[in-house]
Every structure is written in C-alpha cells, then in structure tokens.
Design a protein that fits this description.
Layout: H1 48-79, H2 81-89, H3 95-110, H4 112-116, H5 120-140, H6 145-168, H7 177-197, H8 201-227, H9 240-267
Region (Disordered): 1-29
Protein name: CLUMA_CG006537, isoform A
InterPro entries: Bax_inhibitor_1-related (IPR006214)
Length: 268
C-alpha cells in the first residue's frame, strides 16, 4: 500500500466583497509589491529621497569629525605656548604632512576604487585629515591667538549661513562648475605669481578677499552637488568620501584666507 500526503488546498480566495480586498480579490495593501507598482519600495527606506538624506547625514558626520580634528590641532598649535614655540623653531617639519596631503588628495581624487571601498577610503581620508590638520596648525601658529579665534568664529558663521542658503535658494549653482574651475585655475596662477614677484601686502589682501569669496561660492556649489534633487548635476551617494573631502577643503581654504584678511586689518 502506497502512502502519500493528502492533496493540499488551493490558495485562499477571499470574498471580493471582503473589506481590504479589491474586486479581483487582491489585497489593497499587499505586504509585497512587484517593481511595476508605482508604490514599489516606498515606505521601506529605499526611495531616492531616503537614500539622498542618508548620504547627506553621512557626509556631514564625516565632515564634522574632520573639522573637530583640525580645530584640535589649531587649538594645540595656536594657543598652547610650548607647542607654538616648537612649531616656530621647526618649520621644516611641516614639509612632511604638506607632501602627504598632496599625495593623499591625488589618490582619493583619482582612484575611484580606493575612495569607494571601505575601509580603504576611511583610512585614506583619515590620514589626509591628520596631515592637513598639522599643516593648518603650523600655519595658525604664525598668527596671533585672537586672530585665529576670530577666524574660527567667522568661518563657522559663514559656513552655516552658506549651507542654509544652498538648501533654500532656487538658483542652481551646480551649472557653474566649469566657470568656477577656470576661475580657480586663473586665481591659483595669479596667486603664485603675486607671491614670488609682487610682495605687496595690499595685493595679498585683495587676493585673500577674492579667495575667500571664491571658496564661499564653492561651499554652496559642493553642497548643492551633494543635495541632488532638482539640481542639474549631483554626486553619487557612493561618493560620500569625495563629497566630504570637497566640503572640508572648501572650509579650510576659507579659514586660511580669513586669517590673512584679519591679519592685514589688524596691522592697520
């Protein structure tokens, strides 16, 4: 005698008039949807807005850590007298981290796999942040403490204001990337020429004002690239390291130019 399992009943077919089902007997709010459903993935945290919001939170979290590390080095080398004297007596020590920043930023910018793969990207960004923080600390040690403190405060206020502006304005700064790049190249070449051939303090002041303005625009530009949405250009959510690096460099450059501006105004 062959033993077998009894036949299983067919799928449950609810009454079409039953609440919660449509006329064909399909549930109105099914727990699973196919990818042709316009509501597919909504409410499950995978829609574009939720991905972009998570991306923005990650970028600002990384950026906050970077800035805290830099502020710590600026405070140590700019306000702690023994460390400040050591920096003044050994300026050649800045060469190593300065070269390190150039090498690391080139690696992060040019090697897509390196900046996208964890933990390599975190290690590279962490090493870059340490090198850049040491360089900024050395530079800050050459200024008076009150100027450094004022520059930190002004940078904080300006960055917060520009960030709010970038989120609120209807003007799309992402279309200005090419023009900003050309202006930056011309400004960099002009700065090098001015530093080597024209030792005018007033000219350096004018260049510092222009640099502060240029990198203020870059903060808005890089913020909108990160935001995505209705802007013409946006950065991929996978590029959170690159986005944090861009904003960090913009803020550091703004801070350094503000130091020059405040020093000139203080001398007058």
């Amino acid at each position: 005698m062959l033993l077998g399992y009894p036949s299983q009943p067919g799928p449950y077919n609810p009454n079409p008039d039953q609440p919660g089902y449509d006329a064909q007997g399909k549930p109105l709010n099914p727990p699973y949807m196919d990818d042709t459903d316009p509501n597919y993935a909504k409410g499950f945290g995978f829609d574009d807005k939720s991905i972009r919001a998570g991306f923005i939170r990650r970028v600002y979290s990384i950026l906050s850590i970077q800035l805290l590390v830099t502020v710590a080095f600026v405070g140590l080398m700019g306000f702690h007298e023994p460390t400040k004297r050591f920096a003044h007596q050994n300026p050649q020590l800045m060469i190593i981290p300065a070269v390190g920043t150039i090498v690391l930023v080139c690696v992060i910018a040019c090697c897509e796999n390196a900046r996208r793969n964890s933990p390599t990207n975190i290690i590279l960004l962490g090493a870059f942040t340490l090198c850049e923080s040491v360089v900024v600390g050395f530079i800050s040690s050459t200024y008076e403490a009150k100027i450094v403190l004022l520059a930190v405060g002004l940078t904080t206020i300006i960055v917060i204001g520009l960030t709010i502006f970038a989120f609120q304005t209807r003007f799309d700064f992402t279309v200005c990337g090419g023009a900003l790049c050309i202006i930056l190249i011309i400004f960099t070449v002009g700065s090098l020429i001015g530093a080597f051939f024209f030792r005018s303090e007033f000219l350096q002041f004018i260049m510092a004002c222009f640099g502060a303005g240029l990198f203020s625009i870059y903060i808005v530009y890089d913020t909108q690239l990160m935001m995505g949405g209705d802007h013409k250009y946006s950065i991929s959510p996978e590029e959170y390291i690159f986005a944090a690096l861009n904003l960090y460099l913009d803020i550091i450059q703004l801070f350094l130019y503000l130091l020059r501006i405040l020093k000139y105004l203080n001398n007058d």
